[in-house]
Each structure stands twice: as structure tokens, then as C-alpha cells.
Amino acid sequence: MAHLHGPSSILLPLLVITLSLMSGKEVVASRHLLEEPTLPKVPELPKPELPTLPKVELPPLPHIPTIPEPKLPTLPKPELPTFPQVPALEKPELPPLPKLETPKLPELPPLPKLTLPTFPTLLKDIPFPSLSPPHSTTTP
Asked: What is the structure's pLDDT at 1?
């Protein structure tokens, strides 16, 4: 019995064709975005005029009379009483302090002079080992 291809075999080509046609419409429809846009003309409106307000006259400021400065009576300067004189006290003399004898520090024996260890000197002509393996002339 033959296997029939139903509507599922038509769906894939139909889907591809539909998507390709849709993408073409978007390119054509969006082409006007690349061109410079023309803006609609806005009509100019007349500027409104404000009515002039009447000028208000203010009454003059009241005049305040100047008051003369009052004169203060001069007061007599009070005399301060003098302080009583206090006799100066003699400074007490302290007895001289006895001079303390400091003990003499003990003498330390002289330390022996230390000699620094000498390091062995390296030879100037030292053969450096090669890092590559030695070549063998025999073959296994």
C-alpha cells in the first residue's frame, strides 16, 4: 500500500514562501524611513497682546521727625582704695643635700675578636652541563 503524503508535505514550502514574501514587504515599506522626512507645515499663530495696566500712584512716605540725642550726665570717677602693703617673706633656705657616691661600674673583660668565615672561591673555567640529552651513536 502506498504511503500518501498529506497536507504536512505542503506546509514547509508554503511557510518558506510566506516568510520570504513578508520580509520583502518590510523592506519596501521601510524604504521611506531612509529618505529625509518632510514635516507638515505648522501655521504661524498671531502673538497675543496683553492689555496695558493703569499705572498705580503710591502715596508719599510719611516723614518721621529726627529726635535729638539725649545728653547723659557726667558721673564722677570713683576712687579705688589702695591695697594694704604685705611685707615680703624671706625665702627659707634648705640645707645642702649630701653628695651621693656612685659605685664604680665593674670592668668587663675584653671580648675576643671574631674572624669572619671565608667562602671558597669558584673556579673561573667551570664546564656547564648541557640540557639536551647526549647523542648516542649506537642504534638499538
From this structure: 47
Question: How is residue 128 written as a grid cell?
Answer: 656547564
Q: Which of 11, 29, 8 is nearest to 19 (CA)?
A: 11
Q: How far is CA 125 from the centre of its chain?
A: 60
Q: Kindly report each contact of residues 107-116 with a partner whose C-beta sits within 8 Å and lies 24 or more positions away, as own/partner.
A: none
In angstroms, the CA 139 to CA 136 distance is 8
**What span, in angstroms and rounded, lies between the C-alpha atoms of 21 and 13?**
12
Amino acid at 129: P
In this structure, what is the dihedral angle of CA atoms 4, 10, 11, 16, given to the nearest 10 degrees? 150
Q: d(Cα 26, Cα 20) in Å, to the nearest integer?
A: 10
> Has this prediction a pTM greater than 0.70?
no
End-to-end, the C-alpha distance of the chain in Å comes to 72
- CA–CA gap between residue 25 and residue 28 (Å, rounded): 5
DSSP 32-67: GGTSPPPPPPPPPPPPPPPPPPPPPPPPPPPPPPPP
The three cell numbers locating residue 37: 522626512
